[in-house]
Specification:
It comes from Thorsellia kenyensis. InterPro entries: Transposase_8. This is Transposase. The protein contains three helices and no strands. The chain has about 55 residues and is mainly α. The protein has one domain. The N and C termini lie far apart (about 30 Å).
């Protein structure tokens, strides 16, 4: 994954095989969410995929 500010949106989209619309929608959805929250969200998604019950 690329974190350089000099990389264009189109290059990132091509690298991850997503549209630029998806990229911007993701940015609007997750803008301002800090890393601990994103980490926990990822854990919830993984638990959901594995069929685990979250209490």
């Amino acid at each position: 994954m690329t974190s350089s500010a000099s990389v264009s949106v189109q290059n990132i989209c091509n690298e991850h095989v997503i549209s630029s619309a998806s990229f911007y929608k993701w940015g609007l959805t997750f803008n301002g969410i800090d890393m601990p929250i994103m980490k926990r969200l990822k854990e919830f998604e993984e638990e959901n995929e594995n069929g685990k019950v979250i209490r």
